[in-house]
Structures are given as structure tokens and as C-alpha cells.
Amino acid sequence: MWLLTLIAIAIAVGVHFWWRKKYAALEGQRVAEIETSQRRQQQTNVDAKAQQQVLFNSMIEGLLLLDRTQKIYLANRAFKNLFGLKIELRGKTILEALRLHELDDLVKRVEAEGQVFDHELKLPDLSERWLRVNAAVISNSAGEREGTILVFHDLTRLKQLERTREEFVANVSHELRTPLSLIKGYVETLLDGARNNPDVAERFLKIIERNTNRLDLLIQDLLTISALESGRMKLTLRPVDLRLLVDKVFTDLHSKAENKKIGLVNELAGLTAGADADRLDQVLANLVDNAIKYGQANGSVRVGGKKLDDGRLEISVQDDGPGIPPEALDRVFERFYRVDKARSRDQGGTGLGLSIVKHIVQAHGGEARVESEPGKGATFFFTLPEA
Ligand code: ADP
User: Fold this and answer.
1) Among the four 47, 95, 126, 329, which has the fewest Cβ within 10 Å?
2) 158 Cβ contact list (under 8 Å, min separation 6)
3) Ligand 1 mean position to 249 CA, how many Å?
């Protein structure tokens, strides 16, 4: 019996030691596995964070994440660029980081209402920047508030376009109203009895005729501008002999030049442009017409041209009038810009001629510019491709 007990004890001790050895190996394996898994998890977290960072920084919209204490947790690159910030923002409040009370108030509104859409924010700097902010509270699955997310879109360009459009509509209305109210006034005076005096009637009818012509011109110019700006105007490019085209333009404007005793000089020879002849006619007619309108009586208007080193052609239209003041040189190509409004209107100008010139030249891949020394006339230049 004692022998059996001894054998049983020996087996039990053997099993115990075998088991301890095996368990120790297993335990070591388990610890190593846990460590590997932790390392993998850490790496995954780092990767996910890096990916998140890349994603956030590649966004065009500015992104701001606030934690539940309303401190900045994350601000992407676009956000920093929008606000011109270079400092670390993490841990700061909106007021500390941006000193923008309007944005701070917005965050409080989001807190109260859960979300705020399409809030327009004008940055209080001199750059006239506008932002659109969309914001919402972030909650976890238990419905508890974790923080706030704010997304910023730059509206500046859109606002500028809107303003340009509004100015354009205001200008057009004004330009249309001036001749219309003149026409209306003179028609009423004629109906009130002025028609009974033939001399007065004739004078008034001439004023009415001049103003209807002006309206007609204005509408034609507006239609041209609209077709050019929308890209609806298609160019038919052909070889155009510039000398012949300028001769034609001079013939069309001959009587206007004659009235002011202005000599028209065509200095072009042997240049052929690859251009749309009708549109080019319009460019030259506008420039020569201006040169006659603003040039001095008994003076001359010269059209010249040369081939540039890069192969393009450069055409010039030169007058010897009062010229253009330096501060207006960049602006004369803008729609409705005039150095002297009254003078332009007196001459029947629409304020759109040079804008049309610029658009047509650009549609040909060229550039238009002006040089002038006040008192010494103005020279308009534009480039065109050679045929
Ligand atoms: P407008 O119908 O008023 O002539 P434009 O667009 O053709 O409109 O020209 C814009 C303005 O540029 C004119 O009102 C005028 O003040 C100025 N301008 C244009 N051409 C000349 C020139 N040759 N000499 C002096 N000023 C000019």
C-alpha cells in the first residue's frame, strides 16, 4: 500500500513540475503576445492619427474641434491660414487664440441650440475677408457632449463677385436711366406745346435722336460684353491683313475725324494676324474712335505695328490728346470707368469700349495695355498671334 502511495506522490510531483514548466512557457508566450498586440495597437493609433492629420490638413475648409471645456483640441492647416495664425492653438480658448467675440458667441449659441448653419462672419481686419461657419455639437453614443466642431468656408471671392455684379447692375441702370429720362422729358415738353414752334421742336427731336442712339449703342455694347464674358462669342480665326483692316476702320470713322480736323495715319505694312476679322475690326474701331474723341483738334491718330521677339504682333494706336493720368492707367479697361464722366457722355461714350477691347484681345490670347504721359497723348497697345 505504502508503495502505491509513494508512486502516486512521485507522479503528482512529476506532473506538478511538468505543468509548472509548461505553464511558465505558456505565460511567457502570453505576455509576449500581449506586448506585440499592444505595440500593434499603438502603431495603429499613431497611423490613424497621422492619416487623420493628413486628411484634415488636405481639406480646403478650415476645421476647428473644441473639447468639452471649449478649448481647442484640433485646428487644421486651412483654419490657421484663414486666420493667419502660426502659433500652437491646442488648449487655448477661442478668445485667447483669435480674440473674436463674434465667434465665441457663436460657440455659445451652438452649445445652446446644438447646431448653427451658414453663419456669415466678417473678419475684423483690413483684408475684407468673409467666412461662412457651420457648427455642431459632437455627442457620444450615450448622448453626452464631447465637444464642438466648426467648419469654415472662405466666402471672400464669392462676396467680391456679388459686389461686382451689384455694381454692374447699378451702373447699367444708371446708364440706361440717363438717356431715357432725357427722352421722356423732351417728349413731354414737345407734347405740352413745344412742337408748335418748329425750331424748338427740331432741336428737341435731335436731342431725342441722340439719346436713342446712345441707348442703342449701350445695349449693343452690353450684349457684346455679356457674350464675351460668358464665352458664348466664338472666334473664327483667319489670316487678316492688318493694313487693309485699318484702312477700312479709317474709312468708317472718316467723317468723325474730319469734324475735328484730325489726320488718320496708317503705318502698318506687311503684317498678317491670325484673328477674327469682325472682332478685330471692333477692337481697332473702339481704339481709333477713342483716339479721335479724346485727341486734340487738328492733331493726328497713328496706327502702327511690329513683330515682337517672341513672334507675336504688337499693334499701337497713338493720339496727341491730353492723355490719361497715371492713377487711371490701370483702370481705363474696367467696365464703366471713365476719367471724365461728363466728357465721355458728351462724346456719346458708353464706358464699355475699352473693356470690350480687352476681352476680345484676351480671347485671341493677347494682352491690351496703355501708356500715357499727361499732356502728351496716349498710346494703346495690344498683341495678337501672327497668322
Ligand atoms: P468711353 O465710352 O467712355 O470712351 P472707354 O471704355 O472706351 O469708354 O474708355 C474709358 C475711359 O478711358 C474714357 O472715358 C476716357 O476717360 C479714357 N480714354 C480712353 N481712350 C482715351 C484716349 N485715347 N485718351 C484719353 N483718355 C482716353
Assistant:
1) 126
2) 130
3) 18
